[in-house]
Amino acid sequence: MHLLDPDDRHSTVDGERVCEAIAHLPDTEVLHEWVTRFALLADQTRLALLLCIHHAGEICVSDLAAATGVKDSTVSQALRLLRAHGVVTTRRDGRTIYYQLTDEVLPALLGQLPSGPDEPVHASGQHHRPA
Known about the structure:
This protein is elongated. It has a three-stranded antiparallel beta sheet. It contains six helices and three strands; from the N terminus they run αααβααββα. By secondary structure, the chain is mainly alpha-helical. It has helices spanning 15-23, 28-41, 44-56, 61-68, 72-84, 106-110; strands at residues 59-60, 88-93, 96-101.
């Protein structure tokens, strides 16, 4: 299948490879969704929080702060952004708000990252030593 515009002035070395590449590019909207998803993952604190939620399941802010070694206020701010982008959702139980993943694609991505080292590293870069 040829997808090259005959009026396009770009020089190509292998037109078949260019056509193959073009054929597998998603539409602009889908590409933008992936860019946003990767941008959310590109922050160490947000990634650590998402990994904790992915592996622990539904979890509250104070527990996420304890798990990551990040201040409650920083955790809350990061979770607000993740919630605004539809990556996590909340459930209230009295005064406690629990967070869980809602993005159906993220578990597969997060599952690719190594987990469970003998001495976990917090989002702050400090090592956690169990008591």
